[in-house]
Amino acid sequence: MITIDLSYFEILGTMSPLVIMWRLFIDGGWIPLLAVFLWGFWNLWVFSRQIKYSEKRRFVLLAVDIPKGSEQSPKAVENIFAHLDGAHGTETLWEKYWEGKTQDWFSFEIVSIGGYIQFLVYTRDKFRDLVEAAIYAQYPDAEITEVTDYTDAAPKKFPDPEYEMFGAEFINAKPEVYPIRTYVQFEHSLTQELKDPMAALLENMGKIGKGEQIWFQIVITPISQKEWRAAGEKLVKKLIGVKVEEKKTLLGKIVDLPAKIVSPALEQVLGPTATQGKKSGAEVPSLVPYLSPGERSTIEAIQNKIAKIGFKTKIRFIYLGRKEVFQKTRGVNPMVGAIKQFNTLDCQSLKPELKRVGTRAHYVFIKWRIKRRQNKLMRAYRARSNWRGAGKGFVLNIEELATLWHFPAPWIKAPPVKVVESKRGVPPVNLPIERSSFIKPIAEIEKEKQEIEGPPTELPVE
Hints:
Elements: H1 7-13, H2 17-54, E1 59-65, H3 74-84, H4 93-97, E2 106-113, E3 116-124, H5 128-138, E4 143-147, E5 163-172, H6 198-206, E6 212-222, H7 225-239, H8 250-270, H9 273-280, H10 293-306, E7 310-322, H11 328-331, H12 333-339, E8 350-353, H13 366-382, E9 394-397, H14 398-404, H15 442-453
Antiparallel strand pairs: 1-3, 1-4, 2-3, 2-6, 5-7, 5-8, 6-7, 7-9
C-alpha cells in the first residue's frame, strides 16, 4: 500500500511567508528559477548575435520601370517570386548561434509621392543579381535603377511640427493556410479578360496631391515549405472527416505511460473486449459525399494554396502628409478598401491591425499611445523588418503575392506610374530626367556631388 507523507507541508504551515519562500528555495526551488534564468540568458545571447550580424548586412533599393504597353499578366510576377525562393538557406548550428545568421528577406514596395508612383524592390546587395535576373527573365526591356531611400526624407520621430501620419499592418483573419482572393478569380469566366485589382490601388495612390505620400510595403522571407504545408494538409483532412493522428509531445507520452502499464493488467482481469474499443477507436466515415458546394470550394482553395511556394509575409502601409493637406479619407480609407478586394468570407481576409500597431487609440492616454505607435511603425517600415509589429507574419504563396504586387495591365488608364517609354538603349548625353526629389538614382547623386566638390586634386610627384 502506498502512503504519502504530508508532514513536510504541515511544518511549512507553521512558518512565516518569508521563511516558507526561503525553505522552498533551498529545498529545490532554485532549480526552476535557474532554468528560467538560463533560458532568458540564452535567448538574450542569440538575439545579441543576430543584431550584430544584421549590422553587417548592406541593402540596396531598386526602382523597377517596365515598358509601356507590356502584355505580361500577373503570372509573370508570380514567376519572379518563385525565382526569389532561391535565396532560402539553412544555417548550421555555428552560423545560427555564434554568428547570429538569420534568413535574408526582400521588400516589395509601391510608393506614391505627391501622386508620382514608383515600384520598388529592397534587397540585400548580394541578392541584387538574383532580383535583376528574375525581373529581366519576365520583362527583358525593364529598367532597374538603384535609388536613394525615400523614407530618409520623412520625419524620423513623431509628433512632428510639419507632418502627420497614419499607418497600420494588415494581418490575416483566419489561419494562414486559407487563401485570399487571387488574380485568377478576377478573370472573366467567358472572355478571360482580367479585371486588374491593381487598378483601384494605383488609382487611390495617384489621387493624392503635393505634400502627401502613400507607402505600401510587402516584406517576404523565404521559409521551409514543410511545416506550413503540413498544417494545410491537416486542416483539409479535418474538414473532410479523415482522422488525424496527433503527434504527442514528450510530456504527453509521460502522461500516457501509466495507462499503457495498467492496460495489459486490465485485459487479463476483465478480458480483451474491455479495452479493445479504446485501442482501435471507432472508424469515422468520410464527410466528402455530404459536403456542400461551398465547403468543397474552400477545401479546393486550401489545396491550391499549399501546392505553391509560400513566403512568410508582413504587409504595412503608411499615409504621410503635411498637416495642412493631411486627410485620412483620401489617404487611408481608399487603401483599406483596395486591399479588401482580396477578401472572401469563406476563406481568407486581410484586415488592418489597430490594437497594437495601428496608429489609432481611444479612451485613455490617447496622444501618448498614438505617438508611441507612430514611432514604432515608422521604425519597422524604414528597417523593412520581417519581425517587428503585430506577430511574426503569415504565409502567402507566390500567386497571392503576385496579386497584391504586380505591374498594371497595359489597358489600365493608370495615374502617373513611372514606365519605360521605349526599349533599352544608350541615352543621349545630358538627357534631362524629371524624377521625384525623394527618389534619385545613386549615379545622379554621385555626379551632383562631384560637380559641387570639383575634380579631385592631383598629388605632387616627387
